[in-house]
Structures are given as structure tokens and as C-alpha cells.
Design a protein that fits this description.
The complex is a heterodimer of chains A (182) and B (333). With 182 residues, chain A is an all-alpha fold. Chain A is 75% helix and 0% strand. The longest helix of chain A has 26 residues. In chain B, a hairpin with a 2-residue loop joins strand 1 and strand 2. In chain B, helix 1 packs parallel to helix 11, helix 3 runs antiparallel to helix 4 and helix 5 packs parallel to helix 12. Classes of the chains: A mainly alpha (182), B mainly alpha (333).
Chain lengths: 182, 333
């Protein structure tokens, strides 16, 4: 019973992930693209949940689907184009052929990897109860991956400073002098 | 702590809790109108039933009987998705808020919340951030400038105040050492209610929460003098009802979260018998809801630039400072 349910959810999430991912790049109205990307991130979060990574799933929804995508929608909604059709005809023949070829290559890669690893892939991973909990993740951040964690924080700080610099209009010289006189 | 819960108990409990919360929403609208009426030297609704107590039911029947119109140029499925998304996420967040210690009823263990998670606090913020799409999508799909402007204001306001809201609870998380709401409640029972050591966090949470739920004085997304009704301008009947429900239930959930994080959760003053715990929880939530209504009648609406300045230049630095100071003190002591 439990296994069947897990499989069912896995197939729904994986199908949703692929479908919404295809929709992101194929619909012509950017608002729908953004909505599809939100659905994509949400399905990915479900897959994370199935991998017992609850914290990662929630953080992913909170940060990417919740906060980053709101900004996307904010800009896209102001750009207009509300009345545009979400779908501007199918892709040309060549693109369809390229897609089929890409899928064929992917299947080949999966088959080759599966044959090479053989039975090793059938062993389920052994994880402890604390796996994926906030405490375990925090400990990994501050021990094994401390350098990457700190570098990321510096990159984010630089990005934030850059955002502030790009977002403020530079004050012209005349304006400054005028202010000093006043 | 982690007793096994049968799936049918969870299902039944979810059903009961959803209905109680929806009933709470219905009577919160009545309480708001009554209290506001009294504060403005009016009576408020007093015609339907004794003291107007049946008013919410009359309102519901009215909303259900209204014609389900929609603007001709509205995008159908998104126009319908908006209110559903908003109402669904509002109801879903309440599932992790603990309202009791858990009971043994006729040999069956009934937990004090629908779902007990390690990451309950993050889950509430995550689902809440998805709920914002209900307002944005609905406003965008209605083909109305007022609705679009309201949706955009909601967008900007929610993103701005979400940061301060999340940072304000960080102090509580550091003190309790957990993101699980049941453990935060247990930690407060062992020490003291976190409203005392975390008074700054509590005030920031209350203010940012008022803005997150678009309540006065932060009700710019639906400022009726400027935007008619904001994102739900083009909605009528029960679709409007769903939006209204989402807003009030978000307010109830926020009050419940505030009680859980800062006011000791379901613990009463002194000894509380297990069966009385939900009553304490409801009483504390009711007091907070009264404060929200009180604020609405007392404070005039902020200007838009004041709103943004207050969020980014006052609340955010204060919340950050609070988290840093708490972290230092917890490590030092």
C-alpha cells in the first residue's frame, strides 16, 4: 500500500516536473512561463519530499517558488501582454526532430549507465532518521562544507551590494552642488 | 512525543479543524463588524437573530445566491484558480499549529495538531508565500486596472514584509533550538513565555503580520478610496467569499502562530488540565484578533512610500538586530 502510494506520487510529481518544464520554454506568453516555472519548482519540492529532504523541499518552495518567482511575476505583469495567447502554434518540424533525437540520446545514456552499474542501482539508500532535518543540514554546512557555505554568503553579499548600486540612480554633480548651497 | 497516529484520526481531525476554522472565520466577520460598530458609536449588525448572531449565515446564503459573473475579457481558468489557491493555502497552514497536548480518547491517541513536523515553522512560511499567488493571479486575470494595481501592491507588500516576519521569529527559534511548533510550545512551558525575552520580536511579528494579512493600517492592496477593492474588484458571489475567507483565515492562522511562538501556545497560566488546553488557545487567539480589529478602527492607512520605508528601514533592521542579539545572548549565557 505504502509503496504504491509513493510510486503514484512520484509519477505525478515527475510528470508534472517534465510537463511544466516543457511549458516554461514552449509557451509564448511570459506570464504563463512564470506560472509554469512555479509549478515546476513545486513538483521538484515534492520529489525532494520523497527523498526525505523535508527541509530542502520547504526552503525551495519558500525561497524560489515563493519569493523569487513573485518578483518575476511582478515584472511580467507590469509589461502587459495579458491578452496574448498562451500558445503561439506548434514548433517547426526541425525542432520536433531535434527534441526526439535528444530524448533518444537520453534513453541511451540511461540504458548504458544502468547496464554498467548493474545490480548496484537496485540497493535502496540507507538513511538515518535525522537525515534531511534542519539540525543535520546545519551541521554539514558548518563542518564539511564550511568553505562553500562562507563563499556563498560572500557572493550573496556582493550581489546585494550590486543590486543596490544598480538600483539607485546616480546623483548628478549639479544636483549635489545645488544641495550644498541650500 | 511521537506517538503513532492512525490515518483516519488525522483525516477526521483535519475535517473537524477545517470546519471549526471556517466557523471561526464566519463569526470573526460578525465580531469585527460588532466591535467596529461599537468603537464608532454605532450598533453594528443586530437584526438577524438575537444580537445579530445569525448575520454570518445570512451573509453566506446571500453570497451563494449571487450570480457568478465574470468580466468578458477575464482569463477564465486563472480567474477561477485565484480564489481557490488563496483559500486552500490559508486553510492548509493551520494544520501544523498545535492547540493541545494530545489526548487519549477511548483508547485512540488524538494529537494536539493535525500534523506535527520538524519544520512546521518553515512550512507555514512556504505555504503562505504560495498563497500570495492566489491574489496576484486573480488580480492579473480579471482584466481590470484596479485589480492589477491591487495585485501588484499585494505582491510588493507581501515580499517586503515577509522578510521582517521571518526574521522576527528567528529569535524564538534560536531560544527554543527548534523549528517544530510543538517543541517551541514545550520549551516555553519549561522556561517562560517568549513574549517577555522576545518582546522586540513579538512587536515586529505583530506589525509585519498585520502587513502580511493586508489589515489596516497596512491595507493598501485594497484601499477602497484608491483602488475600489484592489485585486478582488471584479469578483462577486462566493468567489469573492473565498478571497474574503482566505484573508480572515490568514489572520486567524497568524494569531494562532503568534500565540504558539510568543504566548505559550495552549498552556494556561498556572496548571492547565489537558482538556482545557484548546480553550486557552482559543482565548489567546481571540484576544489577539480583538487587537487586530482595534488597530483597524484606530489607525489611519499609511501612504505607500511610508509603508515601504517602514518595512525596509525600520522593521527589517530591528528584526535583524533582535536575531543577532538573541544569538549572542543565547551563546554567552
Amino acid at each position: 500500500m505504502g509503496d504504491v502510494l509513493v510510486w503514484l506520487i512520484w509519477f505525478l510529481a515527475a510528470g508534472g516536473l517534465l510537463a511544466s518544464g516543457a511549458a516554461v520554454v514552449s509557451v509564448s506568453n511570459p506570464f504563463y512561463s512564470a506560472l509554469a516555472l512555479i509549478a515546476n519548482l513545486a513538483s521538484l519540492a515534492v520529489l525532494y519530499l520523497l527523498l526525505s529532504a523535508e527541509f530542502l523541499a520547504a526552503a525551495q518552495v519558500l525561497v524560489y517558488a515563493g519569493s523569487v518567482m513573485v518578483m518575476f511575476l511582478f515584472v511580467v505583469a507590469y509589461l502587459g501582454g495579458r491578452a496574448d495567447a498562451p500558445w503561439a502554434g506548434g514548433p517547426p518540424l526541425l525542432r520536433t526532430a531535434a527534441l526526439v533525437a535528444a530524448i533518444a540520446l537520453l534513453v541511451e545514456v540511461v540504458v548504458v549507465l544502468g547496464l554498467a552499474w548493474g545490480d548496484n542501482l537496485s540497493d535502496p539508500a540507507e538513511i538515518s532518521a535525522a537525515f534531511g532535518s534542519p539540525g543535520a543540514i546545519g551541521e554539514l554546512f558548518l563542518t564539511d562544507h564550511l568553505l562553500a557555505f562562507e563563499i556563498t554568503s560572500i557572493v550573496l553579499l556582493v550581489a546585494a551590494v550590486g543590486g543596490v548600486i544598480l538600483g539607485t540612480t546616480p546623483r548628478r554633480r549639479g544636483e549635489n552642488e545645488h544641495r550644498r548651497e541650500a | 512525543m511521537t506517538q503513532r497516529v492512525d490515518w483516519w484520526v488525522s483525516l477526521l481531525q483535519a475535517f473537524v479543524v477545517i470546519n471549526i476554522v471556517m466557523g471561526g472565520f464566519a463569526y470573526l466577520t460578525l465580531a469585527e463588524r460588532k466591535v467596529m460598530g461599537r468603537m464608532q458609536l454605532r450598533y453594528g449588525p443586530n437584526r438577524v437573530g438575537p444580537y445579530g448572531l445569525l448575520q454570518p449565515i445570512a451573509d453566506l446564503v446571500k453570497l451563494l445566491h449571487k450570480e457568478s459573473f465574470r468580466p468578458a475579457a477575464a482569463i477564465d481558468w486563472l480567474y477561477l484558480l485565484g480564489p481557490f489557491l488563496a483559500a486552500f493555502t490559508a486553510l492548509a497552514t493551520f494544520s501544523v499549529i498545535p492547540f493541545g497536548p494530545g489526548w487519549e480518547i477511548a483508547g485512540v491517541y488524538v494529537p494536539g495538531q493535525v500534523a506535527d513536523l520538524d519544520i512546521a515553522l518553515i512550512l507555514i512560511f512556504a505555504i503562505g508565500s504560495i498563497g500570495a499567488y492566489g491574489f496576484i493571479v486573480g488580480g492579473w486575470a480579471s482584466d481590470s486596472k484596479y485589480a492589477l494595481l491591487g495585485a501588484m501592491r499585494t505582491c510588493a507588500q507581501l515580499v517586503s514584509y515577509e522578510v521582517a516576519l521571518a526574521l522576527s521569529v528567528l529569535g524564538v527559534v534560536i531560544m527554543a533550538g527548534s523549528l517544530s511548533l510543538t517543541e517551541i510550545v514545550a520549551a516555553q512551558a519549561d522556561s517562560t513565555w517568549y513574549v517577555l525575552p522576545q518582546i522586540v520580536g513579538f512587536l515586529v511579528f505583530l506589525l509585519a503580520g498585520t502587513a502580511e494579512t493586508s489589515r489596516a493600517p497596512f491595507d493598501l492592496p485594497e484601499a477602497e478610496q484608491e483602488l475600489v477593492a484592489g485585486y478582488h474588484t471584479e469578483y462577486g458571489g462566493m468567489r469573492f467569499g473565498l478571497y474574503s475567507m482566505a484573508e480572515y483565515i490568514n489572520l486567524i492562522t497568524l494569531s494562532g502562530l503568534c500565540v504558539t511562538l510568543f504566548l505559550g501556545g495552549w498552556h494556561g497560566i498556572g496548571f492547565t488540565p489537558d482538556w482545557l488546553a484548546p480553550a486557552w488557545f482559543v482565548a489567546k487567539v481571540a484576544v489577539l484578533l480583538y487587537v487586530f480589529i482595534w488597530m483597524r478602527t484606530t489607525l489611519p492607512r499609511l501612504r505607500y512610500d511610508q509603508l515601504m520605508r517602514f518595512g525596509w528601514k525600520v522593521l527589517l533592521p530591528v528584526a535583524t538586530l533582535n536575531a543577532v542579539v538573541t544569538a549572542i545572548l543565547v551563546v554567552a549565557l
